[in-house]
Write a structure and sequence with these properties.
heterodimer, A: alpha/beta, seven-stranded antiparallel sheet, seven-stranded mixed sheet, globular, B: alpha/beta, TIM Barrel, eight-stranded parallel sheet, four-stranded antiparallel sheet
Chain lengths: ~270, ~300
Amino acid sequence: MSRYFRAEIAENRPLGKDYGILTFAPSETAVEPEAGQFYMIGRCAGKNGVSLIPVSCRDLRDPLLKRPFSFFRKTRTGYQILYRIKGKWTAMMRDMKQGSSLHVLGPLGNSYPPLPKGHTPVIVGGGLGIASVFSLAEKFAGSAYIFYGTRTTEELVMLDELKGFAKRLLISTDDGSCGAKGCITDMIRNFGGEDPAGMYTLYACGPRAMMAALDSIAKERGMKGYVSLEENMACGIGACLGCVVKTVTGHQRVCKEGPVFDIGEVLW
Amino acid sequence: MNFSVEIGGLKLRNPVMTASGTFGYGEEYSEFVDLNRLGAVVVKGLSLAPKEGNPPPRIVETAAGMLNAIGLQNIGIERFIKESLPFLRGFDTPVVANFFGDSVNEYAEAARRLNDAEGIGALEMNISCPNKEAGWRVFGTDPGETSTVVRAVRKATRLPLIVKLSPNVTDIASIARVAEDAGADAVSLINTITGMAIDIRTRRPKLANITGGLSGPAVKPVALRMVWEVYRAVKIPVVGMGGIMDAADALEFILAGATAVGVGTANFINPAATLDIIEGMEAFMREQGLQDIGELRGKLEV
């Protein structure tokens, strides 16, 4: 079992506004990912061994680095990532065809800690952050409150599935085109639930401002919480020290000590 | 076929080393690379005291390259000796300890500590650091500062001493000669080239540190030219690095005069890049009917 392998694209389909879901099938037995972990994904020229000099990165020098993507979901045909077309790399990803190859490193990083006994999970996804918490929501199978916020309706993805996973699905959009108008954090601030606040555990991924607001809500209401963070990274395995975030215990690597951190430990 | 080389008394089974700062302390890559197959493991730069490094964002990709401003974050020499070195001692591959300081005394003291640790094959001193006792002038961009600091470190260690040169100079060959005269057993080059990237919408630099070091394929032509210049200027061995992604790149450096090569940014793209490069170089030697890697060294025909 290796955490660095070649994979074939089993499916790559557009989804909503500027989103896509890519399914890859590893060429060898892969390590099973857990919710919260991520993959570093790079392009691949094809099968190795075509030249005398085995070159794994030939002609693939721009864009250069692999990119980190949250593990989204496991299916019959492989492992999925949810991506948003944002820059040069993801624009190329959108155009990748079924059957073409990828270099994949992973699953990497830690995962969402288990739910404390007697707690009710509250899952929060902001924009593309839904990718990181999706498989966790699936695992909680009907026991979690799921809050999902985006800028507009077109960015909301996989709503039927999320509804199926949720005890309740609560939606907000910045423009009010679906669900409540405004920030998802405002909905959470006003969220009553059925249990005392101390019995909820937050699992969140989204824009930095959203997670910082969640931190203050968690502190006010004495809630436990975990957030998954993102930073620019080069290696994904703890060597380059490019992806650190500031925490109460100093710089921590998103790729190694994270991506999931205790919400109270991150210095926003 | 002889693939082994010698760098100032340090024997390597093959000419492929890791470049400092791209391979952690070796352990991070041991899942993907049999460290016993490498020429040498060059560890992340060390200082006497641990360093927190720069605030994020620290990395940004640029055309065929990347800028980094890690700020030399490291666990410090004592923790390295206690926590990282024992793991590396389990392999039959020389460990090269890269280190730096912000004064001549700090460099010398760091060299002394590393010299006394068990399991270090050579030292590589990073002279691309500012000197707090000389108006924060960068050691490696000033011939006088370079001479002083290399002499001080030379006195502090009996280990083979590699001086890693900064490319941010007008005449790198003259700095290489200064390092040689001051007692270096070898020089390695290039360190990263200082650069910048700007977000036009926020009008802010893409790195929190504003500037960073450029590495990757984008710098290779510059690195190759500098290795060629330094090779002709000094008698000590040259370790060539800068944008090596595959065996063909590595062989270019050998032809330009490098005795060994450092693989850096490529480790980020392919964690097994070092092994692919070793295999590719061996395949090329077989194809060319070469018996010794030395037959290629400096054999650029002009």
